[in-house]
Amino acid sequence: MTLLILNLSLVLFVFCTRDVVCNTSCPDTWVADRGSCYLFNPDRASNYADARQFCSQHNGHLVVIDDVHENNFLKDFLRRLKPMGWWIGLTDELVEGEWIWYPTKRRPEYEDWVPGEPNSNGGKLDEDCASMYLDRLHVNFQWVDVSCLQTHAPICESEANSDGIIG
After folding, report:
1. 34 backbone φψ class: left, alpha, beta (φ>0; ψ -120 to 50)
2. 94 vs 15, more confident
3. pTM of the entire structure?
């Protein structure tokens, strides 16, 4: 665990000093960008429901991606971490084909689906949760719809205040 925190701290230091001005104050292990704090936990891979609960326990929610700038920030950060799938807060669990951000219940104004997604695997599977995915086919962390029971790591988000307190 100590090695993970040390490695993540090094990634945060390099990321903040080379790529972005980190003017938002966040608690340790959270990453700041434009008024939000993000928690990336590659060692906490779980299903979608457990990922939502994990974020809630850390005073956040699965990330809601509002625009291309936030999406690019996340992609740039994920490229520095373990190549895997990462849960985002987008789901069509309530009504098939109607994608909304959890917990806001808003429809996405910005999207970055892999071409042909979301597709519920051609209608053959229940793929009601969205993930930023990296494998040989999806090399750029674009979004895919997958089964909510798959195992991915959470990206948690919370608004920051000037004291570094999230909530």
Report:
1. left
2. 94
3. 0.81
